[in-house]
Amino acid sequence: MTDATVTRPRTRRDAQFDRIRDREAKLAGTTQRKGRFLSKFLNNRLAVIGFAIFAVICLMSLFAPLIAQHDPMSPNLRAIAKPPSAEHWFGTDKTGRDIFARVLYGGRVSILVGLGSALLSALIGVIIGVYSGYVGGWLDWIAMRISEIFMSFPQIILVLLLVAILGQSLVNLIVIFTLTGWGGIYRMARARMLSIREEEYVQALRSFGLGPARIAYKHMLPNALGPIMVNITLSTAAFILQEAGLSFLGLGVPLSIPTWGNILNAAQDLRVLEQNWWIWLPVGATISLFVLSVNFIGDGLRDATDPSQQG
Amino acid sequence: MLTYIARRLLTLIPMVIVISFLIYLGLELTPGDAVSHMIPPDAYGSMDEDRLQELRESLGLGKPFLVRYWIWISGVLQGDFGYSLAGGVPISKIFLDRLPATLELSIAALLISTVLGSILGTISALTRGSLTDQSLTVVGMLGVSIPEFFFGLVAILIFALNLEWLPVGGRTLPGYDSFWDRLPHLVMPAMVLSIMMTAGVMRYARSSMLDALSRDFIRTARSKGMPEWRVNILHGFRVALTPVIVLIGFRLPVLIGGSVIIEQVFQWPGIGKEFVSAVRSQDYPLVMMVALFSVLAVLVASLIVDLLTAIIDPRVRLGD
Amino acid sequence: MEMGNDVALSVRNLKTYIYTNNRCNRALDGVSFEIRQGKTLCIVGESGCGKSVTAASIMQLLPTLSRIEDGEITYHGPDGPVRIDALERDGAKMRAIRGKEIAMIFQDPMTALNPVYSIGFQIKEMLRYHTSLGRKDRHSKAIDLLRSMGIPLPERRVDEYPHLYSGGMRQRAMIAIAMSCNPRILIADEPTTALDVTIQAQIFELMDTLKRENGTAIMLITHDMGVVAELADDVAVMYMGNIVEAGPVGKVLRKPVHPYTRALLDSIPVLGRGKDQEIKAIPGQTPDPYNRPTGCQFADRCAYRVSACDEMPPETMVADDHRVMCWRYQEFMADAAE
Ligand SMILES: Nc1ncnc2c1ncn2[C@@H]1O[C@H](COP(=O)(O)OP(=O)(O)O)[C@@H](O)[C@H]1O
Ligand SMILES: [Mg+2]
Q: Among A157, A269, B26, C67, whose CB has the most other CB atoms within 10 angstroms?
């Protein structure tokens, strides 16, 4: 039926449309729903790759004692600042410590700081946010004002201020990150609660006479879990970046403990930067890769849990 | 419009008071004699205990806490920020010396990331699903995942140490002080500092633009026979811009925070670098003052963003 | 169907498929109709039956992932017929037709206007691209247009932003935009669904006046049979991508031949017939657009279904201007004649 005199030039899209149309024509009458899920899964392949990288780096750090051939702390005066070799995969640093071992062991601390602070601040933020978002009142008012105060500082400046006051240690760093990080997730949880509060099932539960804590934590919280998960992944990424930055400045985890940031600290020296690339490049790449994988997971989670993101 | 500004200012004032109060609390609780950072250190050194006691009285240190706070804040309002413990320099002088460098760096980075981020995000949205869009998305992801200082290190290695195109760091060489002499120094730090924000703005501009393009008024504009550029830019981008500006306002603290580390990497003589050494040497007066002013900077920035959105978006402008 | 020279636009066997989510939705599966100059064609049907896609096909405002597969859309303009379906979607030729020759107003005036530009800007934009008026003339023309749409104080309101207009006002402004270049055809896609009942009547009255004064052909999409009776010259009843019955309003409403048309008419209360009247909702739901029946689309919900309905019925002329798509039309015609 196509009129030969008026045809539009075919494009790549036309071929794609033809393919879909022909496939549907073949399947006409049969119910077929798998395509959607399958394509959705394939669309998230970045998240899958991210999760794989994340798992590999976590496992390698976890089993560092089994993988690393060298002690991360003990200097070796006969192998100072040696480039990568079969013996030392990532080379050695200026005191002759094996960098590969340091990256593995450093991962333990960095991931602990990142994930630990993210989980702790999520715990605090969610507990306060869910309750105060649902109940409101003076508690909500106070929590909101406190979070406003915390959030009016540029985060790293507040962190450094607290480091100056509390002093440098691993525990302090986690405490400081948690203190400065709970505000964001608190606000998110609170906002979710405010919107869920108006839904009918919540009104119904209230009419059954359920207590506010039970309604908030048992019935409403599960409906806010998606964005909370996304938030936890994203703040894990942010905390790992911050730990790296602080330790690079020499103000994060004490330099005696290997962390990714502490290893990078050596690159403040221009000579190291220029001549001993193996001291800082691999660990920088590791941080980047890890944070990238966490961000991919976060994006994947967001797509999977956000109903407004269709097609 | 004026009442709008006034009202916004009024909501900020309690916040500023509370935070300055906390900062003063911090100053009092941190180790060190309170007198020591209120008078020049060499004067402090040459005083005997009686004289110090006298001074404490006259400075009001024996008075109740609120009175002491009042004395302190009045001083701050008149430009008396106290003295740095290291070297005994008045903090106001440090600010005057270092602020221009920090402002120069931050504003350059802000400009780069705003312009680049919104252009790239718009391109990404307009070519949605294409190879360009996908590559930009991945590049944006890399931008928010790679630590800025690591970017800085790599950039120094490549452009300064190997290619020798740009200086390793610093803001100027002695004797070469014109804008054109300083520009090469600014290029790397500003670019590196802007990376994370550019990526953030890009991602956000993309989704904001996609959102705008899916609105009904875009279809209306097409139905009027407007050319595509007009539909996309005048109708789409214009509407997508407001949330992007709001985001940039929200992200300013991140930029300010980033400059703390980037100034260190590039030995940029700004407040951030000064702040880091103050934290290292536990120079509490200086640390506290920088923190106080960073809060002010953030609040002022949010005020400016509010005004900008009010100017850009008629619904905000008149809708109160 | 003879092609009288009063035809402003003809659509023949139009098939528009939508390909979102990697599926093929045969949104329009062979649609034919004509819009006559100075007349109103009403397209009725339940939501999801393809009314908006029909309008979007004519304007080439379809979603990106969609395609006109087959058929012709011919605009009979002053310079001879133009095959719209062969034009590049957002090309210069199509843009010259949009707004100037065929204008459109949309369902929700709250969202159809750009919130960041004044109403005047949005009218003048149209004048700027389709007329040779200068800046000052455009401004006064915009004011005139608003005035003739019944907007009070047009000199002031022309510079106001949409959020200061009420819903009815916005739809008037929307009509002002659409009518600004004196289009030959006005397509209105459920223009009053989002408005209060009292405002609805005013808007329809305005459209009717415009039609009479300017001789504009109107294609009005609605699912309100009352509006059809009031305004239409011709009616096309759509169901799942087909026009199941079409003809002059008198014939289609008074002597409906298709079971779906009858069901539609039975499902609305008629004013003045008292509260004893029988109102019958159409049983069942419209089928899944991705999983359409192979035969008559309405068969599953039809009380008169026979085995023949498993095949798609052809379009049959029951009078020289009355067309139906049903296997059992003869029985219904006899029924209607009684
Ligand atoms: N933008 C779109 N994207 C995907 N599917 C669409 C779009 N617009 C319409 N459709 C589909 O096309 C069919 C007809 O829709 P439409 O023409 O909007 O119905 P209505 O008669 O209510 O205006 C429906 O199955 C609908 O799902
Ligand atoms: Mg519709």
A: A157
A229 in Cβ contact with A301 (< 8 Å) = yes
pLDDT tens digits for range C127-159:
999 999 999 999 999 999 999 888 899 999 999
Ordered by start, the domain boundaries in chain C are 7-101+184-337, 113-182
Of A152, A165, A295, the CB nearest to B144: A295
Task: Choose among C241, C263, C276, C307: nearest CA to C54.
Answer: C241
C86 touches chain A (CB under 8 A): yes
For A59-84, the DSSP string reads: HHHHTHHHH-SS-SS---TTSSSPPP
CB contact under 8 A, B15 and A152: yes
For ligand 1, whether the C-beta of C18 sits within 6 Å is yes
Contacts of A270 in chain B (CB under 8 A): 156, 161, 168
Asked if B287 and A248 come within 8 Å (Cβ–Cβ), the reply is no
CATH of domain A42-70+88-309: 1.10.3720.10
Q: Considering every ligand atom, which ligand is closest to the CA of C56?
A: 1
Minimum-distance ligand 1 atom for the alpha carbon of C289: 25
- Identify the helix (H) or strand (E) that includes residue B209: helix B179-213
User: Could you tell me the pTM of the whole model?
Assistant: 0.83
What is the distance between the alpha carbons of residues A117 and A253, in angstroms, rounded to a whole number? 14
Q: Going from the N-terminus, what domains does chain B have, and what CATH number goes with each? A: 2-77 (no CATH), 91-312 (1.10.3720.10)
* pLDDT of residue B286 exceeding 80: yes
Domain C7-101+184-337 has CATH 3.40.50.1820: no
Helix spans in A152-276 (H)? 155-166, 170-197, 200-207, 212-214, 225-249, 260-264, 270-275
Cβ proximity of A230 and A169 under 8 Å: no
Closest-lying ligand 1 atom to the alpha carbon of residue C50: 17
